[in-house]
UniProtKB/TrEMBL annotation:
It comes from Kitasatospora putterlickiae. This is SnoaL-like domain-containing protein. InterPro entries: NTF2-like_dom_sf, SnoaL-like. It comes from the Bacteria. Residues 13-116 form the SnoaL-like domain.
Amino acid sequence: MKVVDHPNAKLMEAVYAAFTVGDVQKAAGYWTKDCVHYYPGTSELSGAHEGIESALAFAGRMFEICQGRIQMEIHEIGASDSFAFATVFTRYEREGRSLEMPFVNVARIQDGLIAEFWTYPEDQYAVDRFWA
C-alpha cells in the first residue's frame, strides 16, 4: 500500500480539503469529541485546546483574526496505522501584515479520527510576533 493510499493519509487530505476553504465545521467532523490540538508559542492562540469545542473555538478565532485570509498549500501527507503528518506552506494575513512559512502537523489517529494534533512552525518566534 502506498503511504498516500493509507486511510489515515486520506483522513488528513479530507481535513485539509475542508479547512483550507474555511469549512471548520466539516473539518471538525474528522476529530474525536475529546481531541486535543496543541498549538505552540506564547500568543493568545497557544496552548492545548482540549475537546472539539475548544479546537473549534481556536480555529474560529484564527479565521476571525485573519478575517478569513488564510491559505494553505499541502506539500506532502504521510501516514502509519497510528499517526499521520502533513507538510504545509501557510500564509496568514492580518492588519496589513502577513506570515508565510512551512509548518509540519502531526496527528495521532484513533478509530479513524484525529485524537491529538501538534503544530510545528518553521519559526516559532515569527509566529508569536504575528499573533501578538
